[in-house]
Structure formats: C-alpha cells, structure tokens
Specification:
Blueprint (H helix, E strand, L loop, with lengths): L2 E6 L6 H9 L17 E7 L2 E7 L10 H16 L2 E7 L6 H10 L6 E6 L4 H7 L11 E3 L8 H10 L15 E6 L5 H9 L17 E7 L2 E7 L13 H15 L2 E7 L6 H12 L3 E7 L10 H13 L7 E3 L8 H16 L4 H14 L12 E6 L6 E6 L7 H14 L8 E6 L1
C-alpha cells in the first residue's frame, strides 16, 4: 500500500508552496492572503526511489465564525487520522503563535511520525530563530527549510521516507490483476461486488461509508481470475457528518495506486458530481486503466436518447480524456454486471499491449508527414523514429531534431493517431519527444 503524507499548519505559512515543491508542480494556488487553500490538493512525489502521495490541507483556524474555516478544521483532523506521516509547517518570520500551539497540542497526541518544517529559513540568522520552535514539544524532528527555493527540503524528505511504516504485504499470487471498485460513498460498490461473487461478503446499507476498509476478494469464475477490491468509504460512522467526500478520496488513494484497472462507479440518479471527477483525475494521475460504471440505471425514466445524453454529460466532465468505456448497469438487478467485468479485463489487456516498432513507425510517420509539427521561429521539427517504451503503462517516445519545440496540441494529435489505430481504450498513455 502507498504512503500518504499530509501537510498541516495555520494559514499562510507556505503549505501550498511546500506542496508544489514536493510534487514538482504548481497545482496549489499560492497567495499571501490567508486561507486561499480551501479544498485539498493531492499529488504524487518520488524521493530516493520511494513514491508517496502528498495532501495539502487548508490552514487550521480555531474560534472562527467563517464557515470555510470550520470545514478546514474538519479536513485537517481527517488528514491527520488517515495519513502515515504528518508535516507540520510553521513560519520562522512569525514565530510561535497561539494557532501553532493549538495544532501542536493535537499533534502531540498522535502516534504517527510528525516532522516540524520551519519554513522561510533562508539565511543563518533565521536558523537561530528557528530553534524556538523546539518549544512546541514535538521532539527533535525539526527541519529548517525554504519551500520557495528548496533549501533543506532534501534532508526533510530523507527523514520522511525513512519513517514510512513497513507494511506487511498480504500473500497474493503474482501476475493476477487487481480491479478496484472506486467511487463516492453509497453509490453501490459493495452491492456490485456481492452481486458478482454471489454472497453477501460486504455489508450493504443506505448509510454512506458502511465499508470501513478496502476488502480484497479473489474472483475465479467463468475463465476469469483476478482480485476485486471494494474501496472503503469511511472508517467510522461518527465521521459521516464530517466531510464524507474528503474521506472517500483519501481512502481511495491507496487502493487506486495498487490497482491495475479502476472501475469508477457513478450514481445514475445523481449524475456526475465534482467528487466523481476528482477520483477520475486521481486514476489518470496514477496511470491506471479505467472503466466508468453508471449504477442504478434501472431507477431512471429513460427514452431512446438517455444513454447518449448521459454519455455526452460524462464526456464533458472528464474531457479531454474521453476514450473510456462506459457501462450502464444495475447492481441490484444484476443488469450488465458481467459486461462490466469483461470490459475491465479488456482494459487490462489494453494496458499490457505492446505495439511492434515497425507497425508504429509505418502508421505514425505517415500521419506526421501529412500533418507535420508547426514551425517555430523559422525552425522545422523533424520526427524520424517512434518506439514504445518498456514501461509498466503505455508510453511512446518520438525522436526529433528539436523536441523542445513540440507543443501540447501536437502531442494530443499524436495521441489521437495512436488511439485511432490501436486499442488503448480506458488507458492513459504518455507521449515523450526526445532528442535524436
């Protein structure tokens, strides 16, 4: 299972800047105004050959009437409960504040590794000022960093990855694919698995979050052999009122990272919601196969155009990656549940597909000749050779004289050509342009 690192702290101490530094992107908005981060940002990080997930939480505030800050407090508590390691970010310029003391009081009761990241330490004088933060009583795991320029973050990450808990792997046969059923709470994930295996192994109720942990089920019927994983919605009923959606994504992170294909289940009676799109993007970010299951299709009043309309709505929300199988089903009546499995198997096979280099060059070089990359500054990009890389997920390298001049629209053109001639339905593919 993957490890999760949560960044917590009061507003405006540089949590989002640190998040951007760790995931090597600018996904989180950074502003001097306190409280800009109100939603959670999720990202992937890799350090010393170990990959892990990073969550940027909103700034922690107490005794506030702001409805957003009340939600932020809930999310910080959930992040602390679910994460494996916690980074507590503080600001050397402001010194220890009442909010820092309040957060430290919470973290002192946590049994997980807590690392104190004293931010904005960019000179020797500030290293001395940072020593006062030992007064928070969080032990010796204090690191002076500058999230803006990256100084000190290497030492911090060394300590973080060294502290990851050693998780015992469940003995499972190698080579057997894992299909994870993911989605918002109460969309019918457990009902779907129960319908497939023919027994009520997973508890099913109308209460969101009945499934408390990811459950692995070996499915070996009708010529199929794989593991089905039912994702946890919530761990405790008491938490149902505290941001169910945050839990559903947080608990899905680990399952998605360990899956080969994810079956994203959507409630037909509620349509495509923002949380469905968030989970879909998590699947893409982890380069996993995906099948969209529209459950409870039997509860809708339909006409001849219902399927097409719903498909268009899904495509609008998940664009630009729309080459995804969509199955309209009902776990209750077992309508098309086996079609869903067959499609997941097909997507898994697509993910394993290796295209012959000669075939790839014959098709793509002809497409490139018909529509070459646009010239930039009077310089023409010439692509001479294409090959599929030996990576776990489909990746293709195109060798060119000026790869730096190839822009995103042309990258999408190449991807569309690959999808048009080879079946990579449900699979995110990567396109790289390299110097010849």
């Amino acid at each position: 299972m993957s490890n999760i690192v949560a960044i917590v702290g009061r507003p405006n101490v540089g949590k989002s800047t640190l998040f951007n530094r760790l995931v090597e992107s600018r996904k989180a908005i950074v502003n001097e105004t306190a409280g800009v981060t109100r939603d959670r940002n999720y990202g992937k990080s890799l350090w010393n050959g170990i990959d892990f997930s990073v969550i940027d939480t909103g700034g922690y505030v107490i005794n506030s009437d702001d409805v957003f800050e009340e939600e932020i407090r809930k999310q910080v508590h959930i992040a602390i409960e679910e994460a494996d390691v916690i980074l507590f970010a503080v600001d050397v310029e402001g010194g220890i504040t009442d909010l820092d003391l309040a957060i430290a009081g919470i973290l002192r009761r946590v049994t997980k590794p807590v690392f104190l990241a004293v931010n904005k330490v960019d000179n020797n004088l500030r290293i001395l000022d940072a020593q006062e933060f030992y007064g928070l009583g969080l032990g010796d795991n204090l690191f002076c960093i500058s999230a803006m320029n990256g100084s000190g973050t290497g030492d911090l990450l060394d300590a973080v990855v060294a502290s990851f808990p050693h998780k015992e792997k469940v003995e499972e046969e190698e080579g057997i694919p894992h299909f994870a059923v993911v989605g918002r709470p109460n969309v019918g994930k457990s009902s779907f698995i129960n319908a497939l295996i023919g027994i009520d192994r997973n508890i099913v109720t109308d209460i969101a979050g009945t499934t408390r942990d990811a459950i692995n089920t070996r499915y070996n019927k009708y010529g199929h052999d794989f593991y089905l994983v039912d994702t946890a919605g919530l761990r405790k009923k008491a938490k149902v009122k505290e941001d169910v959606e945050f839990y559903s994504v947080l608990r899905s992170v680990r399952t998605i990272e360990d899956a080969d294909v994810c079956l994203l289940m959507i409630d037909a009676t509620r349509g495509v919601e923002s949380q469905d799109v968030s989970i879909f993007n998590l699947i893409l970010r982890n380069k996993k196969g995906v099948v969209i299951l529209v459950n409870k299709w039997d509860l809708l009043e339909k006409d001849n155009h219902s399927t097409n309309k719903f498909t268009e709505m899904i495509h609008e929300r998940i664009a630009p990656f729309v080459d995804v199988p969509i199955i309209f089903m009902s776990a209750l009546t077992k309508q098309r549940i086996f079609k869903a499995l067959e499609t997941a198997v097909e997507v898994y096979q697509n993910r394993q597909q290796k295209v012959k280099t000669s075939e790839l060059n014959d098709i793509l070089l002809e497409a490139i000749e018909k529509y070459p990359p646009p010239a930039i500054k009077g310089k023409y990009v010439k692509i001479k050779y294409v090959t599929q890389l030996p990576s776990p997920t489909p990746s293709f390298a195109l060798f060119a004289n000026l790869p730096q001049y190839v822009k995103e629209p042309y990258r999408r053109y190449i991807e569309n050509q690959i999808r048009e001639h080879f079946n990579f339905s449900g699979i995110p593919i990567q396109i790289f342009f390299r110097k010849k």
